[in-house]
Every structure is written in C-alpha cells, then in structure tokens.
Amino acid sequence: MVRIHPSLLAADLTCLRESITMAEEAGASALQIDIMDGHFVPNLTFGPKTVEDIRKHTSLPLEVHLMVMDPLRWIKPFYKAGANSLIAHYEASPHLDKFIQQCQALDLLCGVALNPATSIAVVEKIVKNIDVLLLMGVNPGFHGQQMVSYLPEKVNNSKAWFKEMNPHLLVEVDGGVNETNAPSLIQEGADILILGASFYLNPKRNEFVKHLFQLSST
Ligand code: DX5
Fold it and tell me: Structure pTM?
C-alpha cells in the first residue's frame, strides 16, 4: 500500500501541533520536514530546533528533506534533533557517497532527491546503498506548484531500472502531488507520496488519503 508523508511546509505554521495531529489522524506513515537554506532553493524554512520541537509531540517518523547546499554539514544537527531519515539532493553535493556512509553510521535512513530535470542515471552507483529515491515533481522551493508532466514516466523508469539492484528501494514523489495525478503515480509504482497543499489546504484531506490507500490496495 502507498505510504503518505504530509509535508509541514504547506501547513499553518502557527498551528504546528494541530498540523501534526492531522497527519496522524489521516494515517500518515511519516512527516516530511522541508529544510531550505535560501541558496540551493530560493526560500528559507526550518532549522534543527523546529525538528527538535516537533519530535516532542509525535511518534511519527520525521523525514528531513535537505534542500540545502553542503548537506553533510547538517547530518549531525538533524540527527541530534530527532530526525529518522535524511534526504539530500544530488544537485547539492559532490560527496553523496560520504553522505550515505555518515547517515548509516548514525543508523539514520537515508535518501537521495533528484530535481525534475536530473536523470535517474546519476544514482546508479549508489542506489543499492540508499533507502529512498525522492523524485521531485516540481523545481523545489515552494508548496502548491504544478507537477511536471513527465514525472509518472520517471517513476516507472526508476522502479524498472532499480528493482534488481535494490529490491528494498522506496521511490518517493514530492511536489505537486494531487487528486488528478496521484492515481497515475500509484499505478507506476510510487511507494511514497508527499502531500503538501493537497493535504493541508484540503478540507477533505482524510477522504483523499483514504482514497489513495484504496487505490493502492487494489
Ligand atoms: C518543494 C517542497 C514541496 C512540498 C510538497 O520544494 O518540497 O514539494 O514538500 O508541497 P506540495 O505537495 O504542495 O507541492
């Protein structure tokens, strides 16, 4: 069954505890926390202190999506803050293998994120050592954007190419996932869907998530 990770970026940040409860009540498998540094992406968001405070109020796994230059610098601070998994962008680091090794040394789940235009071929050498391949549906920086049209095909290619090399790899789609495109993403084999606006700005969020669970269990 598909896993749902609501992205707190799209939540009302003055009501973080309620936003966490919404995710728990909808049956989310984890919470995604988007870390942006204003350099790798044109926006600024949260730091380790926010993750630390969120950690105190939920037992949900915390997936920290590092949209930052030099992700290695942030492994320890977010590990100490209580992150369960760290995802770094291929485009942000020449040292991805080192990033993976350092996450594994701390027993953190780890993943690599690819912007829409980046080919999945770039992870061929490391795909067997990661837990999650995050395929961005949008150019990162903001919630509520439109997904690129070629994302379902990228999911299909990733599942086909990497299933032998890493049968446990989870392919995740982040950015622009909504009621219109989610069925095709599930059909192509997406394991995890990140929901920002389509969850937190959707009064019928619970029905939407339930529908996704039903779609993926048929
Ligand atoms: C973009 C962010 C968003 C967010 C999801 O940089 O990473 O993708 O997590 O927000 P929606 O689902 O509204 O695109």
Answer: 0.97
